[in-house]
Amino acid sequence: MAILKMKKIRLCGIAEEQDQLIRELQLLGSVEIGSPEALTEAQQTQLFRTADGGGADALSQTSAALASALETLKHYETKKGGMFSARPEKTLGELFDDDAYRAAVQTAQEALDTQDARSRNQAEKSRLTALRESFVPWRTLDLPLETGGTQHARVLLGTVPAQTELDALRETVYGAAGEAQVERISADLQSQYLLVIVHKGAYDAAASALREYGFTPAGFDGAAGTAEENIRLTDEKLAACEQEDKRLTDKLTALAGAVPAIRLAADRCTQEISKAQAADRLAHSERTFCLDGWVPCEDVPKLEALLEKFCCAWELEDPSPEEYPDVPVKLKNNRLTWPLNMVTEMYSLPAYDGVDPNPLMAPFFILFYGIMMADMGYGILMILASIIITKKARPKGTSGQMFGLMFSCGISTFIMGALTGGFFGDFLPQLAGIINPNTTFKALPSLFTPLDDTITILIGAMALGFVQIVTGMAISFVEKLKKGEIMDAIWEELTWWVVFAGIACMALGVTNIVLYVGIGMVVVGSGWSAKGFGKVTAIFGSVYNHVTGYFGDILSYSRLMTLMLAGSVIASVFNTLGAIPGNVVIFLIVSMLGNGLNFALNLLSCYVHDLRLQCLEYFGKFYKDGGRPFKPLAINTKYVDIQS
Description:
Helix content is 59%, strand content 11%.
């Protein structure tokens, strides 16, 4: 339960073994590869070169194609996994099967090509549908649509708005063009569809008159024949499009059976990208390469055993204090504290020369969450949900940490619920009262209750806050002593411990001397480094900042009582509302809905407030953040689990 010590590795090897060495380092999963810093700029320019990144770029394109194929085929899968389905387990041999990989990439490309063909077919289907709709208003017209006129006449087909007075239009056209014929072929809510025949010599005058009424010539996309003939022809083409769409859909449905293989190929491609990116960070000469990186001290024996198989030279050294900001951080925790990584990483990893906060935070975080949630029913739900999901889905990474933390907090919630007598609020007494109005069962046994012992719980919450703050000060005290900052440890932490002890002694009526000593230490320590009148301002400033700071920090822990009280009251309110009709079924429905909402809200709000107490009040006393996460070259998969 600590920050793992790191070793810096510098390695030179022969170029022909580079690919195999990088692969073995990836399988080992213990080395973070960086650029070779030991080489001077002249050496890098004259002797070595870096890769152009082309290999990783090509693999990234393949990865994007695989991802697109999976996104496409998920709509055609007949059997889909559930939300919490476990990832399939595969061996390294299956992951790195070249034949299966090439086949899956080819299948993915075939799926993309098929989807493109279906998209084009659907676009053609939409075009034909729109074209058919343009023919329908003219289907009673037995004149070929391409007819432009005769030797002496011009034929116009077009539309005017539905509200147009046709008689007025005719009179206008007749007045402008003399002899003409205007016939309405059909009409709908938006338009009237007209056939206009005029003498060629009067065409321009007729067209001008028609424009006054919003006449729009019809367009038929070069169609020939009557509207009815074109409708039949378009229907035949639409039927062909339907058949083609069915064929392509069936093909995609069949290709969807290869989704597991494509997922495996996507994971394989991810490993190849990581490997190529690592190779791009190396410096190369014609026959050699150089590598710089970091490895945890506990993994050094495994690394040395691996490197013995290759023709290479390497050295390992401890980082200097000047390098600490660049040293990656890896936390080592047990099963209890490992889930707290999600909290630490959300805030910031500790500096390499800092302290691992997880074991120091775990008891407080879990206890505080239980105090705020404080309900046996909610605790049981959290425990069961975390166990079932962990067993069924086998979540990894942050998801695994989240459900691990839920399990621990569920136990704490159940215990605090047992102490306060809460089981979905007052669910059991309310249910008993509905079943038997004369029952004497009014509440579960409890040590204290949020409603009746609010002040006691508030005092206890702030007392726990004081304990956590003093714990943070103790950690800071020890760290300062390790660094030789003895005076800072005395004036910043020890002084205020004496003040706290003095306040306790005075409150208990033992003695006031301890408090006087503490105040004297505050005065001396506050002006220790100041000079002249600055000592006075330093003393007042230090006292004010520390007193208000500690008071504000301790007061923040009142949220433990507030959330416990709020959750209990909301649950009781819903139970009371459900019990008013006196019907068991109605009570169960209202209570389940209300408690479900209360549980969901508290699940998140308790986490957020607990997180605030740890990150602001607790970490502020000792935590040195700014660590960079350790990112070794390793097998990292998204869709499958690799059997160990």
